[in-house]
Amino acid sequence: MKKQFIKVVLSCAVVAGGFTVTSCKNSSSKDVSRATGWKINSKDGGFQFNTDFKEQETAPGLVFVEGGTFTKGKVQDDVMHDWNNTPTSQHVQSFYMDETEVTNVMYLEYLDYLKSVYPPENPMYTNIYTGALPDTLVWRNRLGFNETMTNNYLRHPAYAEYPVVGINWVQATQFAEWRTDRVNEVMLEREGYLAKDAKYQASTGEVAGTFSTEAYLNRPESVYNGQIDSLQGSKKKDSINTFAKRSSGIIMPEYRLPTETEWEYAAQANQGTREYNNYRGRKKYPWDGEYTRNGQRVGRGDQLANFKQGKGDYGGIAGWSDDGADITAEVMSYKPNDLGLYDMAGNVAEWVADVYRPIVDDEVSDFNYYRGNIYMKTAIGEDGKVNILRDSVVYDTLPNGKIVAVNLPGEIKMEAIGEEETFLRTNFSTSDNRGYRDGDPSSSRFFDQFADEDEADAKKMYDSPKNKIEVDSAGKLVREYDKSNNRSTLINNEVRVFKGGSWRDRAFWLDPAQRRYLPQYMATDYIGFRCAMSRVGSKSKTKNKTARGKKVR
After folding, report:
1. Dist. CA 287–CA 338, nearest whole Å
2. What is the three-class DSSP state of 510?
3. FRET partner for 257 with CA separation of 20 to 30 A, picked from 2, 107, 168, 550?
4. 69 C-beta neighbours (distance < 10 Å), count
């Protein structure tokens, strides 16, 4: 018996060449590598990893949406005869969605930051702030008096919690990028990687640079214009800086516009009609039922969304308004859908990430469907390090003459992938995939004559107008309309999808499956946006199955 005990002890503590393998009882420990037996997160050094990570934290303003399979597209009569969203079966990964549309006060916070950190008085920064300003002139109507909204809607506190409008697609994506950096800045401060209130020092001018998430992950010493040493938090050990990594589990994925498939899935909120592993029927609107009016005892007869109810009727009669609004309404004015998302029908339509095409190509993809991929990579400088655009701003002039900043100072320089990344690769062969199988050379019947993209007379599948905008010798913008009679479509790679009905739309457009499009540089008084965020890790927040989905009453 004694000999057997000695054998067990020896088998659990093997010493070979001065290297000790961790004891048997700890072989399944999360702090011991199952590949090598080495300790993880040892004080003596070696591999460091966040083994205590549980799950992704829900970022500010977001609601969790568990992914699954659903029918994307219209299953009702296509009275408009667009035939641009035939039903397809799609699967969506779990993600997060803004509880409401981005409001005026949220966007004003963004504008205030840009104006403080990049003062327009500085010639290099002039167009950063002005390029982010909403187009307040969208309220004007040749035969309508709307100057009150033109002058007040964005900034007056009475409209603070109303959805922001006059935002084009480009501005919406830039807001999402800025929001990502500000949220991650707060996360790092909370976890002790940045000093308390470090986020305010850039806006007050105490430091000369700002925080960029990707710059922090790739070259952390470059953040805050190289002054991050003085902004280290409690994690700093003696004189050694400690930086969070992606493997730390603290950095949030980016805020972004939702894909069209994500938006439609979230708007339908079919979880409320689920029984076991089936959906019972299909919703016509984000709420249950075939009608737009409330059928419950409390509030019976009231409209469930903000939309145009008839010719000259935007909200009913005085004293008995059906939807409580004539233009947009304050967010959360109506009940949420079964996912807890507000205004997924009515109030304002919303930009989504996708480039518009009439066909949803489910032969190529039925998982996280999205058209609009442009694959980029970080630019590497001559010193072998990631290239940071520290003291430069790259601007782009949109087709309507609006100048917007492509990057902000301190961000990483990005460039399109090339042959080094695509050679002998089967899943993609080029950087720009917006026209894949629907607008690229191989999908056109003129493929043998397909000319360079820059040639105006090229025979393309989507031959849209090409208005010119140039800078003359005096530095002024010269605008010239495309007067060609050969243009046959408005569709191109700069046209984006927007979803949902708005205060200007009839009930037909409240169906989540409806889709429309607009050039990404244009803005209106009825299109807003909300942000989304991908979920990393497990599909669900719980392992327990329920017989029926949760319904919002």
Report:
1. 8
2. helix
3. 550
4. 14
Tell me the per-residue pLDDT of 366-396, one tens digit each, with 9 for 90 and over. Answer: 999 999 999 999 999 999 999 999 888 999 9
- DSSP string computed for 142-159: TTB--HHHHHHTTT-GGG
The torsion defined by the Cα of 458, 459, 461 and 463, in degrees rounded to 10, comes to: 60
As a whole number of angstroms, the distance between CA 478 and CA 540 comes to 54
Beta bridge partners of 468: 480
d(CA 513, CA 76): 9
Which domains can be identified in the chain, with CATH numbers? 53-177+250-372+499-553 (3.90.1580.10)
CA 491 to chain centre: 22
Q: Other CB atoms closer than 10 Å to residue 525's CB: what's the count?
A: 24
End-to-end alpha carbon distance in the chain: 68
Residues 6+ apart with CB under 8 A from 472: 478
Determine phi and psi for 198, rounding to 5 degrees.
-60, -30
| Residue whose entry in the numeric block shows the structure tokens 């996912």 | 339
Q: Write the single-letter amino acid at 152.
A: N
What pLDDT score was predicted for residue 25?
A: 47
Between the alpha carbon of residue 405 and those of residues 127, 285, 402, 409, the distances in Å are 7, 38, 10, 10
Q: How many residues are given for the chain? A: 553
Q: Which residues pair with 548 in a beta bridge?
A: 275
How far apart CA 184 and CA 191 sit, in angstroms, is 11
- What are 482's two structure tokens? 């495309």
Q: The tokens 């499009």 sit on which residue? A: 517
Q: What is the DSSP letter of 114?
A: H
**Which amino acid is residue 15, in one-letter code?**
V
Letter for the amino acid at 76? Q
Radius of gyration of the chain (CA): 27
Note whether 396 and 173 are within 8 A (CB): no
Question: 518 or 457: whose pLDDT is higher?
Answer: 518
* 536: Cα separation from own chain's centroid: 15
501 burial level (CB within 10 Å; 0-12, 13-18, 19+): buried
- The whole-angstrom separation of Cα 370 and Cα 379 is 26
How far CA 456 is from CA of 69, 445, 450, 453, 463, in Å, comes to 42, 18, 12, 8, 9
pLDDT in tens, 481-529: 988 888 889 999 999 999 999 999 999 999 999 999 999 999 999 999 9
